[in-house]
Write a structure and sequence with these properties.
- The chain is globular, with a radius of gyration of 22 Å.
- The longest helix is centred in the N-terminal third of the chain and has 28 residues, at 131-158.
- Among the domains are: 67-181, no CATH class; 182-281, no CATH class.
- It has helices at residues 11-28, 33-38, 46-59, 81-95, 105-127, 131-158, 167-177, 187-199, 217-241, 245-269, 271-297, 308-311, 318-321, 330-335, 344-350, 352-357, 368-376, 380-386, 398-407, 414-420; strands spanning 40-41, 44-45, 313-316, 361-364.
- It is mainly alpha-helical.
- Helix 5 runs antiparallel to helix 6 (131-158), helix 8 runs antiparallel to helix 10 and helix 10 packs antiparallel against helix 11 (271-297).
- The strands form two sheets. It has a two-stranded antiparallel ribbon with strand order 1-2.
- It contains 20 helices and four strands.
- One of its GO terms (biological process) is lipid metabolic process.
Length: 438
Amino acid sequence: MPSRIDPYLTESDVVILENLFRDKSKASTNANPADDDKKASQGVDLDDAAALAYLQALNDHSSPQFQPTVFTTWDEKDVPVWLNKYLVRPYTDVAKRIVRHPTDVVFLTHILLYLSVNLTSAIYLYFNFSYIHGLLHAAFTFWCAGAFTLMLHNHIHNGGVLSRDWYWLDVSFPYVLEPLMGHTWDSYYYHHVKHHHVEGNGPDDLSSTIRYQRDDLFNFLQYLGRFLFLVWYDLPMYFIRKKKTGLAVRAFTSEMLSYAFLYFMFFHIHAKAATFTLIIPYTLLRLGLMVGNWGQHALVDEVEPDSDFRSSITLLDVPSNRFCFNDGYHTAHHLNPRRHWRDHPVHFLQSKQAYSEGRALVFHNIDYLMMTVKLLQKDYDHLANCLVPIGDQVKMTKKEIADMLRTKTRKFSEEDIQKKFKPSFKAADMPKKGMVTP
């Protein structure tokens, strides 16, 4: 099983992977327990303690080791010294007063990027359309869609990403940018926060994977088609069944207004420009959301499927964590949807024993897109190679891991669901739309 660490991983992911590989190495060499006692301090492994202290220092703005995230593509060490001194650091000092958390300068960077490039480019297309520009615009939007969606993800879970003084921008930029990035107004909030995190991939979750054979292409296409063509109806009806009529009305209204906007821009303003600035991003994003959700929740434990540890996964990879704000820590996110994205690696290391005892699945060198692809190819050997074994998994052979993963994709019958899922009484412990929290 390869132990290669991608050098382009975030610094936190490198620390986590090195720690997990060290655990695996110690377990496989059958180290003497007395040796572990020498390395322990008050019951905490010194390797873990040092790694945890370092990760915490990266997030602590009072620490000399504190590192705000300014860009997704580059870390501070990658930027030339003169550029850091005269441009990046002065910008960072100003930006830290604008964003909600001093770690989150990157959110302002992205808001400025999308407003200056994506919005400007889209407006220009309506006045001076060309197919080359349209294709380049759609391609760049597709490239940005993941990062924008995960920035929006942080926004909807925590009532914003900017400080109180910038409330006007915090509440307005999503409504300007959502259609350009493929989102319909507020639908992500209603579907993800008010529905998905309430149900947690359980029987009443409209995006639940449990009723599908999760390594089968036909089942995936059924899952995808249901969302693409019926979510406008299914989500309001879900809220009505849950006696949340107000949410049903708001979700339906925002979706219909979004469709009306797309219709108006296509048929009454500029069909070609609308195709490349609105229709293509909308189609690609909805495909991407379902491909991603399938990858996040395809491996569901057959014994305890309602456990957050066993119904979602953790990925230590570049696309999810460097470009999409630690989206790979999906189990951590389900355990606490309002946890700050920079705190996920800290939580993981602090809770490593719980993850091991919970038989959680941790992978590296694979993202959610490729997770879905490899599952649909039934390439369990590749997935076994990507698994980072923890707990009892360390003792398993590659074949045993592949066989174990195969059991996690089996379709649940209605009888299974009745037996293995308890009625959900989760509360949507989330802020109201637009609410600013400290």
